[in-house]
Design goal:
8% of the residues lie in helices and 45% in strands. The protein is mainly beta.
Length: 51
């Protein structure tokens, strides 16, 4: 499990700030030969002067 925790998908804004997702629909399934994790990640970026 520790290897999975080390995987990161980082999303940055135009000033290299890190955006944090809202996670929904998380599903975890395990079989004798594998592990499957799925989820939906939504990012919201608000920039001054942009609509």
């Amino acid at each position: 499990m520790e290897a999975i925790r080390a995987i990161a998908f980082v999303v940055r804004d135009r000033d290299w700030g890190t955006l944090y997702p809202n996670i929904d629909n998380e599903q975890i399934s395990q079989t004798p030969t594998g592990l499957r994790l799925t989820y939906d990640a939504a990012y919201k970026m608000v920039m001054a002067g942009w609509m």
